[in-house]
């Protein structure tokens, strides 16, 4: 019953995280687009930065943005904050339900670093808090006065964190933690900078004072950071389905390049919406980097010469010993109630059907078994690879 409840908890949390994430990212993308699409009009009021006309759902909309604030506080203000808060909260509990509860399976890899469950969870929590503190101090330092310098240093530190995670956790968990770190920074930007600064401006207007524009400027900087971090965090969220990325021995390099690709794509759209022309060179570079990643993931320095003459019987013996504890109609591994993704490897027909998947996950990327919990050896992986390379015959 406990395992069934955990499976439903995982599903519900994942669904909630997706819903809240769509709401947050959707509103974020819209407001960035709106900011970039504002245009000055000859008849606009004093203090108005720009205006935009929109059409959607059969109706027309007119929007103005003030340089600092309107002359009078309106009776009703719509705040955009809970989308960010609930996205982070649901994501944190989802990570806990999967990676903390099943730390031995998904979070810890003894080949990377032998940790206890408590140590691994502590590293995880401390890294998220420390990551936000370092980022926030950078933004408040003199470096924060230059968007370019801050972006370069911030990117370098994020890449360093990515590499660091690969030295502590399993490859899959490392990618997940990069996404969690970015998501924490983004949500904390909203909760601890953007919204508080907006509340200061509102409080000043209620008190009959002119709002201090510096608070709005700081909030705008953090909002811009969130805009450029969105695509990398989305990639990290879905990466657990693609071991060809995190399973590579230089997975941290792949994720670093993906961050650059995401930034280039966002920059293309930001410039386009600002009316500064369609700069296709950013998309071209992003495309070339993506193609480069395809070739890079094909190269694997761990790859060794495969054993010759591996038979199906040899491959089946390895699978029976190392894989079917989970990939069976009735798994025997503690906490696994059904074959992951419906992949069962008990009969010869099933094994041959999933031969390419075995090659991808157990041989090429070595991401299965998770955390190598069944202690499959390099020689056994070679047997599987040799059998598959020879045509995956049942003889």
TrEMBL record:
It comes from the Bacteria. Pfam families: Urate_ox_N. InterPro entries: Cyt_c-like_dom, Urate_ox_N. Residues 310-392 form the Cytochrome c domain. Keywords: Heme, Iron, Membrane, Metal-binding, Transmembrane, Transmembrane helix. One of its GO terms (molecular function) is electron transfer activity. The chain crosses the membrane at residues 12-34, 85-108, 120-138, 150-168, 174-195, 227-244, 250-269, 281-299. PROSITE patterns: CYTC. This is Urate hydroxylase PuuD. It comes from Ferrovibrio terrae.
């Amino acid at each position: 019953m406990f395992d069934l409840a955990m499976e439903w908890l995982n599903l519900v949390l994942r669904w909630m995280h997706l819903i809240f994430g769509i709401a947050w990212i959707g509103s974020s993308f819209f407001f960035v687009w709106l900011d970039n699409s504002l245009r000055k009009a000859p008849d606009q009021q004093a203090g108005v930065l720009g205006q935009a006309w929109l059409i959607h759902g059969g109706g027309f909309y007119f929007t103005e943005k003030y340089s600092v604030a309107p002359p009078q506080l309106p009776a009703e203000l719509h705040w955009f904050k809970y989308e960010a808060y609930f996205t982070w909260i649901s994501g944190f509990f989802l990570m806990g339900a999967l990676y903390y509860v099943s730390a031995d399976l998904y979070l810890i890899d003894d080949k990377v670093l032998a940790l206890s469950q408590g140590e691994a969870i502590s590293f995880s929590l401390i890294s998220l808090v420390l990551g936000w503190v370092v980022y926030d101090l950078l933004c408040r330092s003199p470096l924060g006065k230059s968007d370019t310098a801050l972006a370069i240093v911030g990117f370098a530190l994020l890449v360093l964190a990515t590499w660091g995670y690969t030295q502590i956790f399993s490859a899959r968990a490392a990618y997940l933690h990069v996404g969690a770190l970015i998501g924490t920074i983004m949500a904390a930007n909203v909760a601890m900078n953007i919204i508080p600064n907006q509340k200061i401006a509102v409080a000043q207007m209620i008190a009959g004072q002119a709002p201090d524009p510096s608070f709005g400027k700081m909030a705008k900087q953090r909002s811009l950071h969130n805009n450029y971090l969105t695509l990398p965090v989305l990639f990290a969220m879905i990466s657990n389905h693609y071991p060809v990325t995190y399973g590579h021995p230089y997975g941290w390099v792949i994720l670093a390049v993906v961050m650059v690709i995401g930034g280039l794509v966002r920059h293309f759209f930001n410039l386009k919406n600002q009316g500064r022309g369609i700069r296709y060179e950013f998309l071209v570079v992003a495309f070339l980097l993506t193609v480069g990643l395809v070739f890079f993931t094909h190269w694997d320095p761990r790859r060794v010469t495969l054993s010759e003459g591996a038979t199906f019987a040899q491959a089946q013996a390895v699978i029976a010993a190392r894989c079917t504890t989970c990939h069976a109609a009735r798994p025997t591994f503690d906490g696994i109630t059904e074959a992951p993704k419906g992949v069962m490897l008990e009969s010869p027909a099933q094994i041959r059907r999933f031969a390419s998947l075995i090659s991808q996950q157990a041989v090429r990327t070595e991401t299965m078994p998770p955390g190598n919990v069944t202690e499959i050896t390099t020689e056994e992986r070679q047997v599987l690879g040799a059998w598959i390379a020879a045509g995956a015959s049942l003889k």
